[in-house]
Write a structure and sequence with these properties.
45% helix, 0% strand, mainly alpha, extended
Length: 164
């Protein structure tokens, strides 16, 4: 069986659990970052719109919710953040919960987080990389763009070339 084969290879977890652990490790890091980061903004941009009959059967949201439900079965099927995100905000507890996806489980010795005791996200970095506008500011509107008329260029070019 698959369990026997996994035991022969150093008791490795099943592939589904390995993928879920990677996804959820990344997801926990995203949740603990400040909201100015693009992945944090995209995480909360899940849309609950119906999809076409020919659309994908497994979206990123459905995949993440399925992975979350492996470790927290009581999470709603729509993956509402309020039903699971507070677990991920506590990094040490999240790491412990994720360890349940591998055969070498660890025993948790701290308090189990709840939605009221979750620590706030970390403060934004004090210095952000310069934005594109800061690196290349647009030209000021007080100086008009300099354009040369094509006839002026031809006349100037011909007068310089004939003087040689």
């Amino acid at each position: 069986t698959n369990d026997d084969i996994r035991k022969r290879f150093a008791n490795i977890p099943c592939l589904k659990n390995q993928i879920a652990k990677r996804q959820l490790t990344f997801l926990g890091k995203i949740l603990r970052k400040h909201d100015i980061h693009i992945p944090s903004k995209l995480l909360t941009a899940w849309c609950d719109n119906p999809h076409r009959r020919s659309a994908l059967l497994q979206t990123n949201k459905k995949s993440l919710v399925a992975s979350i439900r492996l470790i927290i079965p009581e999470v709603q099927t729509n993956g509402k953040l309020s039903s699971w995100a507070f677990y991920a905000l506590d990094a040490s507890y999240w790491k412990h919960v994720l360890s349940s996806l591998s055969p070498k489980n660890s025993e948790w010795r701290g308090d189990i987080p709840n939605s009221n005791s979750a620590p706030p996200p970390t403060s934004p970095p004090t210095s952000l990389p310069p934005s594109r506008q800061q690196l290349h500011p647009p030209p000021s509107p007080s100086t008009p763009p300099t354009h040369t008329h094509p006839d002026t260029f031809t006349t100037t070019f011909l007068s310089h070339s004939s003087s040689k």
